[in-house]
Amino acid sequence: MKDRLRIALAGNPNVGKSTIFNALTGSNQHIGNWPGVTVEKKSGVARLGADEIEVVDLPGTYSLTAYSVDEVVARDYIIDEKPDAVIQVIDATNFERNLYLSTQLMELNVPLVIALNMSDEAEKNGVAINRTLIKKYFEIPAVRTIGSSGEGLDELLRAAVSEAATSPHHEHAIGYGDEIEEKIALLVPAISRDAALASRYPPRWLAIRLLEGDENARARVAESPVRDAIASELAKTGAEETEAAMADRRYEVIAALLPQVCTTCVRTLNASDHIDRVVTNRWLGIPIFLALMWGAFELTFAAASPFAAAIDAGVAYAAAAVSSGVQPAWLGLLLGDGIIGGLGAVLIFIPNIFILLLLLSLLEDSGYLARAAFVMDRLMYAIGLPGKSFIPMLIGFGCNVPAIMATRTIEDSNDRLITILITPFMSCGARLPVYVLFAGIFFPQNAGTVVFALYVLGIALAIGSAWLMRRSILPGKPAAFLMEMPPYRIPTARVSLRHMWDRGQMYLRKATGVILIGALVVWSLASFPAGAEYGSAESYAGMLGHLLQPLVAPLGFDWKIAVALLFGFVAKEVVVGSLGVLYGAGEGSLPAALLADPALSPVTAFALMAFVLIYLPCLAALAVIKKETGSWKWTGFSVIYGLVVAYLVAFLITRAGTVIAGGI
Amino acid sequence: MTTFSKLLFAGLFGILYTAFGLTMILSALLPGAAEITLPWMIPTDPAGGFVLCVVGTVFLFAWQKLAAASGDGYAFLCMGMALAALFGIVALVAGLARGIEMLVFGDGEPWSPAGLLVPMFWLALVPSLALFTWGRVFMHDLVGA
To answer: Suppose A467 and one of A383, A472, A482, B23 were both cysteines; which one would form an S-S bond, judging by CB atoms 3.0 to 4.6 Å apart?
Structure first.
């Protein structure tokens, strides 16, 4: 006997599945106002009276054709795990488009309930959906819900529980016309001869999938003893024409039923559409995107500076007090120079990171970032990638790890691989401390602009690399970009601040984990062997740095920078933490120490920032690249390619900068 | 607000924003130009100049579409005012933050309240006021267009 019911939440992307999931289970799953935020299934427990119900949030999918990884995850869960009921969350403001998935879920013969989500917005737009008629014509209960306020969710759970208890469940069948129905009629008996196969998958559904040329479905019958009989039937049909004919038939069914259940589902232009005329304008779209990004970086740099100055003063005071006040002396130095100096050098940038994350959350929650992907589509397509690839790249501004995972929404494997390989060029929050530190010191008048330039450089390198890969090692034609634009919403302070905190706390956790360990390792290397002057050429850090220095000398970097870059491989923030330790920031200000270093100039500082942007994905990003590509070869390629490009770009900046500055 | 007023407003601010934006870009690129522009409190800031040009172009698009009696003209005018207000706030916050850093912590570049009067801020005053005053009317026109 099963302990508790399992209910899956399915639906198109960005219809509010995760909002409903969070409201039902009390979870804190990330929600974004753009498609593809959930790329893995997530589960939680909801309560209905005294009963516990397991709720599974599936990735958004427009159909069950399973062309992309997230679609496969959603479909396989429904087919293989057989949840007791499926709730299809539908965006009531866009009822018609959501019904295509409904027709496919109906064919799976799963107990199904429709959640008419965002009903308040739909009603505001004059959309009136008759739930009684949905039940009558589709034989599916429909519940009015507002995910953001939790309205209707108890009723939704009760309806799902009631459907799960309905046994045997009625079958929904769409008639595909004589020609296709004849083919289905030939395949169904062939499938039914394998009892194991037929008990696992509804034979009619499997026959339809096979006729549509679904590779995933064909793989499922490859092991069956009836595979030859099925193959001989399939050999007589052309999959592409059949798939198109079946899709047409589903749309015909939708077109016939829609006016019955929704008398005012005709879309009229609203304020979102008018705003889109401007921000997705062919000539203005990209300039407006760049201008908004500049505004975000200008604010990030300027608004954070008083807070950063306050933390800097506090860290310098604490480090000096601990270094001189704690006995024995080595312990004072360890705590002052090693821990407070190293960690403090990174903590100073917390205001910058949190402000940038807040601004990105505001842009995302307003719905603008989805438009950014749309306006970049033309450019992306020209270089050989679908516009969809720009969404993971934008997520990469926060952190490369979820960005690489977000590539699961990309159907074509080569498109996806290229996007995985170029995403590390997007400037994540961990690189920001390096930019803020060096831009603030060496470009005080234009620090925000310099940071903005580095972000643009990252985008340009990503696009250039994609162009190169498409024309060499990963050829192919990008898939067309089809994306539903979410409506604009005024971001709420509560949601945007929570998004900022969710992402920012990862940085705080790193500060007390890997960055602290990194600082201690660098301090140990700078302090030993016994008798060597702290941070001198005779210390282990000095020896290691001098070993690496010939490699980075053409870029204008000295041994301290070489050591910091080496440890930055673990996490990019460690670069600043290491510099804080090596420059003895505990005894004074790191910016002052860097400014006084004759090896550093505005040109080398900019080359260093570019190098940090490009040179390596961090350890966590590399682990995700290995997981997502399933290949050490591509993981290794990512490392080597990043290093080579970083070296070339930094070298060019150093040479060009030296010439422009009137040097050699 | 009549269509003529909207046309005048969009044209005037389109020209002002674009002119100041180009001046800021050129003062950064042309040797010696900064000596002429800085006394007029026009900073040498190519990125900021680019942003002003973008806002100016949105206003000029609004002017062109309003002149052609296209319904989109309202949308462009509204967005031009919104962008002007947004970047005006960015300039104000950035200026104030620099002032606080200098006055409280003694860090950063020398600062005076006059440093707030950059074109990105003062040019935004009228469009921000217009957005605040006429925004609802514009939004109504926009949806009804």
So the answer is: A383
